[in-house]
Amino acid sequence: QVQLVESGGGAVQAGGSLRLSCAASGSIFSISSMGWYRQAPGKQRELVAIITSDGSTNYADSVKGRFTISRDSVKKVYLQMDSLKPEDTANYYCYANLRRLWQTLFDDVWGQGTQVTVSS
């Protein structure tokens, strides 16, 4: 069993900050990348930020310069969100591309999501 558990969501006023955390646990052999996606009501899920095992990062254009993704271990990732805007309001999902102990291929695993609400 593999799990991604998120924390840190909540409500904040525009211009404020939040920090999301995600920890992976279970029978994991290797993680190639971890990151965050978000989905607002009536919209498709979209990439926010991702970080690979070698530390490379990629951000959505809409969050560049405001959000920072980081990792302090192989199995834990953070998303520091500054200068939040109402359009950042969404359910944020942690993502990992990983290989389980008994598998030879990598696949995608998702967390349950954490709500971020930014008021104007």
First-residue to last-residue Cα separation: 40 Å
Percentage beta strand = over 45%
Share of helix, binned: under 10%
The radius of gyration is: 14 Å
H/E series: EEEEEEEEEEE
User: Could you name the ranges where pLDDT drops below 50 across 5 or more consecutive residues?
Assistant: none
- What is the mean pLDDT? 96
The biggest beta sheet is recorded as: 7 strands, mixed
Number of H/I helices: 0
Number of strands: 11
Structural class: mainly beta
- What is the overall silhouette? elongated
Question: Keyphrases for this structure?
Answer:
120 residues, 62% strand
Describe the protein in words.
- This protein has 120 residues and is an all-beta fold.
- It is built from no helices and eleven strands.
- It has strands at residues 2-7, 10-13, 18-26, 28-39, 46-52, 57-59, 67-73, 76-81, 90-100, 107-110, 114-119.
- The strands form two sheets. Strands 2, 4, 5, 6, 9, 10 and 11 form a seven-stranded mixed sheet that branches. The chain has a four-stranded antiparallel sheet with strand order 1-3-8-7, with no helix packed on it.
- A hairpin with a 6-residue loop joins β4 (28-39) and β5.
- The mean pLDDT is 96.
